[in-house]
Amino acid sequence: MKFSIGDKIILKRTGEEGNITAYLNDKMLEVTVDGVTFPVYEDEVDHPYLKWFTEKNKEQKKKKAAPEQLPVEQPNKRPERLAKGFYLSMLPVYKMDLMEEVVDHLKVYLLNETPISVHYVYDVKVGERSVFKHQGQLHAFGHLYLHNISFESMNDQPRFNWELIAMENPGQFASLEGQLRIKPVKLFEQISKLQMNNEPSFSYLLAEDFLPVAKENSKQPEPEKKFIPAPIPKDKIIRSFHQLELPRYEVDLHVEELMIDTKGLTNTEILQLQLDELSKALALAVAHRQDQMIVIHGLGKGILRDAIHKILKAMPEVARYNNEWQGRYGFGATEIFFKYD
Prior knowledge:
This protein has helices spanning 49-64, 184-197, 255-258, 267-287, 303-313; strands at 8-11, 17-23, 28-33, 36-41, 45-46, 85-96, 101-113, 118-126, 129-138, 143-150, 159-166, 176-181, 202-207, 250-252, 292-296, 318-322, 333-338. By secondary structure, it is of the alpha+beta class. The chain has three domains: 8-63; 85-207, Immunoglobulin-like; 240-338, Ribosomal Protein S8, Chain: A, domain 1 (2-Layer Sandwich), CATH 3.30.1370. Strands 4-3-2-1-5 form a five-stranded antiparallel β-sheet, with no helix packed on it. The longest helix is centred in the last third of the chain and has 21 residues, at 267-287.
């Protein structure tokens, strides 16, 4: 092999120096540069000895014959990096099993592709048990290795809970939080695509950017017309976090996110429950003069989506809405933009 673990290397594209920390496969290395660990292809790095030798010769020539007037070196302007959002990235690590490469575990990374440094809180749960917790700080355009998770445990559909808080002017931005769950079928599709395209990892967009904190306004909006839900059996438990009277920029109306058990409920009662949850979220958004909101309804037969759009058409505070393709939701979400007098 050209490299060994612990060797010093240089990135061909940027000229940055680092060390090799692990071999991921026959084409991929894991390197650490300035305290940040990430994967690279082997042909993207080289030994730094030629650079060191060249720089040493240049220094010796300068000492032997210094010019009367040193030329002014123009500073190199680094290209401005564009904000792309916050991601949870997963890197499959393979092992040989019966002469075939299979996924052994996944390396999980948090990516901050924005110019804002953040404080993060991260918690992975299986059922009610937390299997990994961590919090800390991640600088702008920084990548952070979090932990490994076995491929077999992904069959239990662990919940990746996350929260991000802006470290610069924290009072101006609302914190971001959410939960990522990956169905085994989707995970298998992602890994199959990686192998076909010869790519090292796949990522999930957590959020695109921080949103400004909603400003308080003494003028109270007119009360909204709410849908009256059909009677729901008392033994059905609604998840406690939906009782918080705070506005949300993302509302998931999938019934499994609203109720623990739906046995005994008809489709009409479930739809009415979802619309009631929507009405509550819309009322809170208007009361806090929120500027926009995402409502996740999924695809299905389009019954829930059509009912949501009917409600939005009747609201004077809704400036417009659209159900266009989005990378995170596909066509399964509607984006709402509000207006106020």
